[in-house]
Design goal:
This protein is of the alpha/beta class. The chain has 5 helices and 7 strands, in the order βαβββαβαβαβα. It has a single domain, classed as 3-Layer(aba) Sandwich (Rossmann fold), CATH 3.40.50. The protein has a 7-stranded mixed sheet with strand order 4-3-2-1-5-6-7, sandwiched between helices.
Length: about 220
């Protein structure tokens, strides 16, 4: 059976989960190439939120970029976003994959910033939709409670439900379905060990291979 990913040109953008070579810029990127993607371009800028991809925005904690089968290039202080409209015009991807969630969840705050998160989410979705490019949004995974970022299971669940309701017409990929709370070990509550990123990348790859957003992305 031929994968729906076969032959696709895929652009992946997102936050810190893509910003280190051993993270999703490794496992997810490689998984899509193994599924037969024609090309995969991944750009991760640590700490960024969705609306920061509407204009060029410097990263606050580094980033990385990877094209095809080459190794990821770590950007360090030079990391910055590139406007999604420019990226799509330049690369003409069949599918844009977005990896955002943890940077909007405000884990340490008593209240979830719903209005702000809605503005962040819908502005990026609208920019992509205006180009008639298919998209898939990967939501946050469970991680571990506590740690440097104060992650909690109730808040990550709230963040996921919020995204599911607000990212259409992008297809939503619910990462909470891939593991049980706390199943994948983390180094700081939010970022996973190598085994966790390998498992997450594999699960996202399989989800994309079966996603309605992927079907017909290149006219098939």
């Amino acid at each position: 059976m031929v994968s729906l990913i076969a032959g696709l040109t895929i652009l992946i953008i997102g936050d810190s989960h893509l910003a280190t070579p051993s993270y999703l810029i490794g496992s997810l990127h490689d998984g899509l190439l193994r599924q037969g993607a024609k090309s995969v371009h991944t750009i991760g800028v640590c700490g960024t939120t969705p609306a920061e991809w509407l204009t060029a925005t410097p990263g606050s904690c580094g980033g990385a970029e990877r094209i095809g089968s080459a190794k990821a290039v770590v950007k360090g202080k030079a990391a910055a976003t590139e406007p999604i409209s420019q990226l799509i015009a330049k690369e003409k991807p069949d599918l844009v994959v977005l990896v955002f969630g943890d940077t909007m969840a405000a884990y340490t705050k008593p209240d979830f910033p719903k209005t702000w998160a809605w503005q962040q989410t819908t502005s990026l979705v609208k920019a992509i939709s205006s180009t008639n490019t298919k998209c898939a949004w990967v939501g946050p995974a469970w991680g571990s409670e506590g740690g440097k970022y104060g992650k909690t299971f109730p808040r990550v669940q709230l963040m996921s439900k919020f995204l599911e309701a607000n990212v259409p017409p992008c297809q939503y990929i619910d990462s909470l379905k891939f593991a049980k709370p706390g199943q994948w070990a983390t180094v700081d509550g939010q970022h996973f060990t190598q085994a966790g990123y390998n498992a997450w990348g594999s699960a996202i790859t399989q989800a994309l291979a079966n996603a309605p957003a992927t079907k017909g992305a290149n006219g098939k």
